[in-house]
Design a protein that fits this description.
This protein is α/β, with parallel strands linked by helices. It is built from eight helices and seven strands. Bound molecules: nicotinamide-adenine-dinucleotide.
């Protein structure tokens, strides 16, 4: 029987890339995100790879909408085998100018939502003795940068949640791991390149080389394909003893 994966924030960037990798391996998918064309994206990917998918517009800030997403998945596909907590937002500002509303938003989407989704899928995974929870953290779950107080706090927080769920899931066949990417060229990062180029009076190429990839020892963006492959491996049956990890995929950033 085909396995089912819920991927939050999968209508763009990393989530969409991972969804395509899972669709190519025959997973049934639940797409989620705020993009208005989410249903069309789900339909397109399902058709391209010949699998089943549906779209849920659940806002990750609202626990009752998360509950509904998990219930819809159970009634449509019968079970949740894999949960990928990927939805995320960013805001960059010095602490004294950092808006309270942005702090609450980032903690809500990037951290608290993973608590609510994991809690909602947990009883089913426990009952079946199988589950895979994969949190898309960041190199910022392992290292800090200035002006990213909320993002770094949320990403360090999700690494802590990952370790705790790994310990609680160990007796029930549930693993929980975090993937910690460096820079990946997605709409989230493309926006930052344009903003930084304007702010510093630099070309976009200069921003990429001198600001963005400065922290990568390997001067390349991380690819969506690599993240998809890693998530697929962590989701597989054979990865049963990999749990509680925070796996850096960041061109050597955190080796420094
Ligand atoms: P993106 O902006 O391309 O996609 C973010 C997705 O999250 C979108 O589908 C968006 O609709 C969804 N989303 C945002 N708020 C939501 C909400 N309230 N409810 C439901 N969905 C919501 O960003 P991305 O670069 O693909 O980032 C995906 C994840 O990867 C994030 O957690 C981000 O922190 C992490 N990450 C990204 C990079 C990078 O360089 N791009 C590096 C490390 C970690």
């Amino acid at each position: 029987m085909a396995k089912t994966a819920i991927i939050t924030g999968s209508t763009s960037g990393i989530g969409l890339g991972i969804a395509c990798s899972f669709a190519a391996k025959g997973y049934q998918l639940v797409f989620n995100g705020l993009e208005e064309n989410g249903a069309a994206i789900a339909e397109e990917v399902a058709q391209e790879f010949g699998t089943q998918a549906f779209f849920s517009p659940a806002n990750m800030l609202h626990p009752e909408q998360i509950q509904e997403l998990v219930q819809q998945t159970a009634s449509r596909f019968g079970q949740v085998d894999v949960l990928i907590n990927n939805a995320g937002v960013q805001h960059v500002a010095p602490i004294e100018e950092f808006p309270e509303s942005k702090w609450d938003l980032i903690l809500g989407v990037n951290l608290s939502s993973a608590f609510h989704t994991s809690k909602a899928v947990w009883p089913g995974m426990k009952q079946r003795g199988f589950g895979r929870i994969i949190n898309i953290a960041s190199a910022h779950g392992l290292r800090a940068s200035p002006y990213k107080s909320a993002y770094v706090a949320a990403k360090h927080g999700i690494v802590g949640l990952t370790k705790t769920l790994a310990l609680e899931g160990a007796a029930h066949g549930i693993t929980c791991n975090a993937i910690c990417p460096g820079y990946v060229k997605t709409p989230l990062v493309e926006g930052q390149i344009a903003d930084q180029a304007a702010a510093h009076g630099m070309s976009e190429e200069e921003v990429v080389d001198t600001i963005m990839l400065k922290k990568h020892a390997v001067k390349e963006f991380v690819s969506l394909e690599l993240l998809g492959e890693m998530a697929l491996f962590l989701a597989s049956e054979k990865a049963s003893t990999i749990t509680g990890t925070a796996m850096p995929i960041e061109g050597g950033w955190t080796a420094q």
